[in-house]
Amino acid sequence: MASTPDTGQRPLSPHVSIWRWHATMAASIAHRVSGVALYIGSALIAALIISIAMGPDAYETVLGLVLSIPGRIVLLGFTGALSYHFANGIRHLIWDGPGTGFSPGVASMVSIFNFLFATLATLGIWALAYYA
Amino acid sequence: MSHQIRTPAANVRGLGASRAGTGHYIRQRVSALALLVLVPWFVISGLLAMKGGFASAHDWLAHPLNAIVVILTLGAAFYHMRLGMQVVIEDYIAKTSTRQALLVLNTFFAIGVFAATALSVLNIWISAS
Fold first, then answer.
1. Are A42 and A79 within 8 A, CB to CB?
2. pLDDT tens readout for residues A38-61
3. Interacting residues of A92 by C-beta distance below 8 A, sequence separation 6+
4. Whole-angstrom Cα distance, residue A10 to residue A128?
């Protein structure tokens, strides 16, 4: 059988399922998942903006959908994803710009901090929406 | 040859890096930098405006400065989203035809929704002035 002689020299990634769960891994997966969630949720923000241009009736209809119970659950997910993606995005910019924060201890701590920040920022946005 | 990571077959096929990676990397980060400032403003300012009902939300977008910064936010966000979703599609969709179709749809979605929202804001701003 014809084979490529150099194949044995190529680097191989360990299969994802053999990795032990750790904070940086969860942070990385959550960054991508929240990014995709924001992509889908952007349609909601777009609908609100377009409805303002269409007039009060259209706006009230869209706002009614957004503020329904299922709408509020989606909105909670959206604000959570936005808060998390924002915090972890700053970490990515620090990794790529100044190039610090790569040591396992710091990276894990920042991961946990980002999850905490996202929770608090989400609560902050909802507090602003209800009480401001 | 043994030091090369790519196989001879890969070299002959000429596939692989399309030499667009660096540009993509920089654009993703430059749009992230813009969003770092724009998103907190958009969330807080927009939320407070919406609390006052339709008239308040409308007035918010009718103000030139708000309209301009909202359009900048939308531009940076949909650009950043398109770049991010492109990587997700390239990572997970192995079948070429499906991948290419999704990449095209991704571009259409991002540009389409950006145009719809930005023109809506322009419409509000211009008809109010």
1. no
2. 999 999 999 999 999 999 999 999
3. A31, B29, B32
4. 53
Do the chains contact at B32 and A92, CB–CB below 8 Å?
Answer: yes
Tokens in use for A45? 């923000």
> What are the tens digits of pLDDT across the range B62-104?
999 999 999 999 999 999 999 999 999 999 998 999 999 999 9
What domains lie within chain A, and their CATH numbers?
22-131 (1.20.1300.10)
Which pTM value belongs to this model?
Answer: 0.87
| B73 CA: distance to closest CA in chain A (Å) | 12
Instruction: Output the pLDDT for position A78.
Output: 98
Q: In a mutagenesis test of the A interface, which of B47, B78, B106 is the best target, namely the one with the most A β-carbons within 10 Å?
A: B47
The span from the CA of A110 to the CA of A108, in Å, is 5
Q: Which domains does chain B carry?
A: 20-128 (1.20.1300.10)
**Runs of H (alpha helix) within B63-95:** 64-92
Query: Which of A53, A59, A60 has the CB atom closest to B123's CB atom?
Result: A53
Interface contact A59, partner B, CB < 8 A: yes
Residue A32 pLDDT > 70: yes
Q: Is A9 on the interface with B (CB under 8 A)?
A: yes
List helix spans (H) across A16-103.
Answer: 23-54, 56-66, 69-96
3-class secondary structure, A19: coil
